[in-house]
Amino acid sequence: MADRISVPDLAAMASLSASHFSALFRKQMGYPVLQYQTMLRMGRARELLDTTGSTVAAIAAEVGYPDALYFTRQFKKLHGATPREYRDQHKG
Known about the structure:
Blueprint: H1 7-13, H2 18-29, H3 33-51, H4 56-62, H5 68-79, H6 83-89
Helix pairs in contact: 1-2, 3-6, 4-5
């Protein structure tokens, strides 16, 4: 999950140009490739926040964000809460 595969690499695996791959991906998935990758990474982050006691920095690194502050900003933009706020709101 931490390794982001580039659009050109994905396109090459499918024997398509990057622009054609991107257009097909968006048509099929409903999202651009990078947005979809971000959604997957943030989904994994939510899972880790819900099921582990790992620090936000450790979770950020595990899902491919070496900068925990950037991860926190991206998480808040997508979920309306920081990772810590999310964890506090979803404690069982």
